[in-house]
Design brief:
seven-stranded mixed β-sheet, 6 helices, alpha+beta, 178 residues, disordered C terminus
Length: 178
């Protein structure tokens, strides 16, 4: 990691050939440049992590920038540079989109949500990256939602397919992250 130490987070991510899927999604969602400003801890799923995601979920992220950003921001902790040595016991981290991500430490193994850190402490000038082996899917607060006449939850086409197929998310009425 010393080779990339003088680069910011987006540059460090882009220079890691094992993080191309994550980097490409950050670019697609126009998040990369934001990550160059301020300090962040990024929990970056490696390329293999994306192969575990349901293909219809991946397709829905490609077609829905709001859902894509929600998922990506769930992997970013704002205003902090959390090194692996800062993790102990168990607790939660608060993401950019205000959601809590649980973590636990067992010996030298750090689990964050459903993922395990496979490479810790990839340092950049404005933060740190921990490579993880699974894509973390945000779980929003439970609420009752029904399709609208416009064709989908929150009026966004395809949302009902995402929830029916993936079965991982619940719509929270009135909550839309832009």
């Amino acid at each position: 990691t010393t080779l990339f130490r003088s680069q910011n987070l987006p540059q460090t991510l882009a220079n890691n050939s094992n993080l191309t899927n994550f980097t490409n999604l950050l670019k697609k969602a126009n998040i990369s440049q934001v990550l160059g400003i301020g300090n962040y801890t990024i929990l970056a799923p490696d390329n293999a992590a994306f192969s575990k995601v349901n293909p219809s979920t991946l397709a829905s992220w490609q077609n829905n920038t709001t859902a894509l950003k929600e998922m990506l921001w769930y992997h970013v902790i704002p205003r902090e540079k959390i090194q692996s040595s800062d993790f102990s016991g168990s607790g939660t981290l608060t993401t950019v989109n205000g959601l809590s991500v649980p973590y636990s430490v067992d010996g030298t193994k750090i689990k964050v949500d459903n993922a395990t850190v496979t490479k810790a402490d990839v340092n950049a000038t404005n933060g740190v990256i921990h490579v993880i082996d699974s894509v973390m899917i945000p779980r929003t607060a439970t609420a009752t939602a029904s399709p609208t006449v416009a064709g989908g939850f929150l009026g966004l086409p395809g949302f009902e397919a995402l929830y029916a197929v993936a079965g991982l998310l619940v719509v929270e009425i009135g909550r839309a992250h832009v």
